[in-house]
Design brief:
Elements (H helix, E strand, L loop, with lengths): L13 H29 L43 E2 L6 E4 L2 E11 L6 E10 L5 E4 L3 E5 L2 E3 L6 E4 L3 E10 L6 E8 L2 E8 L16 E2 L7 E5 L3 E12 L4 E11 L5 E3 L4 E5 L2 E3 L3 E2 L2 E3 L4 E10 L5 E8 L2 E8 L2
Antiparallel strand pairs: 1-3, 2-3, 3-4, 4-9, 5-8, 6-7, 6-10, 10-11, 12-14, 13-14, 14-15, 15-21, 16-20, 17-18, 17-22, 19-21, 22-23
């Protein structure tokens, strides 16, 4: 006999049991959704949209790219100095060490903590082909007999045949009214006196010393006249630096033979106080037969020199020519 509905072990209704299971599943789903919503409400976004800058169009879509913060303003050089300071009168001063020429371009007193600072602006001209350091090590400030090193941290490299400006910062003792700016290269030094009370703009000329012709010398001047070669002085200029007088001597060789000759720095010397010195810069060249070529020889002499002797050498023969510098 078939079991009747309602007998033990037989469910009374099939569909109601399924409905109860569905209600249980729905309850679990609703609870999970509520739990997820609660978690999401506690999450803080990593980034929020940046506020529009004043004057910008905030209707434009956000690109999503981060905006770098503005760089902090730099008020002065290192060592506690700040502000533009008081401009001092700049002495006309250029210093030369071979191919390196330093020209003073600016001076200013800057308030510091606790003492004021002297800010010095210098132009370095590298007249050679080799890169050189442009750094604090070249400069000292002598105040009351004490040589002070810079606090600016200048450390650059200037390429050959290039120029670059730099700023050097020195701490000053209270009440300092005068100082000496010292340039140092190897065992060579050059001093420039500074008046720290001379308020005002730059002098009429703060450019690098210019070459000027040496007047009173008739050119061309025959230096050596031989059957095979002749040498003529065709140019003579002078540059006045704080530490040296720079003479640029241009000599032309006339090669009267059919054989190529050599013309280099071994052919010329500058005699000062009995001492013969070689040029620190020249451009040697060959001179083909029956042609002529000129070479410039550059010498450094003491800054106050007035009498020099130019010596020309060709093999075993030489000739001295005395020159007066007005």
């Amino acid at each position: 006999m078939a079991p009747r509905i309602g007998s033990p072990g037989v469910p009374a209704e099939g569909p109601p049991a399924v409905a109860q299971g569905r209600r249980w599943v729905w309850g679990v789903g609703i609870a999970a959704a509520l739990f997820a919503a609660a978690l999401l409400s506690q999450i803080v976004p990593r980034e929020s949209a940046a506020p529009a800058l004043p004057g910008s169009d905030d209707t434009q879509p956000d690109s999503g790219a981060p905006t770098a913060p503005p760089a902090p303003a730099v008020d002065g050089a290192a060592g506690g100095a700040s502000g533009s300071g008081t401009t001092l009168r700049v002495p006309e001063a250029s210093v030369a060490f071979g191919n390196l020429v330093y020209t003073l371009r600016g001076l200013s007193l800057v308030e510091g903590d606790p003492n004021p600072h002297l800010r010095v602006e210098v132009l370095l001209s590298n007249e050679g082909r080799t890169p050189v350091n442009f750094w604090d090590q070249t400069f000292r400030l002598v105040v009351d007999g004490v040589a002070r090193q810079p606090e600016s941290g200048l450390n650059e490299v200037v390429g050959g045949y290039a120029q670059q400006e730099g700023t050097i910062d020195f701490g000053l003792p209270p009440g300092a009214s005068e100082a000496t700016l010292r340039f140092v290269t190897g065992d060579q030094t050059a001093d420039v006196p500074l008046d720290l009370t001379a308020v005002g703009g730059p002098t009429a000329t703060v450019t690098t010393a210019q070459a000027e012709p040496v007047l009173g010398t008739e050119l061309p001047l025959m230096l050596l006249d031989r059957a095979d070669r002749a040498y003529l002085l065709t140019g003579l200029t002078r540059q006045r630096f704080v530490n040296v007088t720079r003479l640029a001597v241009t000599i032309r060789q006339d090669n009267r033979t059919s054989v190529t000759s050599y013309f280099g720095d071994g052919a010329v010397r500058l005699v000062v106080d009995g001492q013969a010195g070689a040029p620190f810069r020249s451009a040697a060249r060959t001179v083909p037969g029956n042609t002529a070529a000129a070479v410039e020889f550059v010498f450094d002499a003491p800054p106050d020199i007035r009498e020099v002797r130019l010596r020309l050498i060709d093999g075993e023969e030489s000739r001295d020519v005395d020159l007066t510098l007005p």
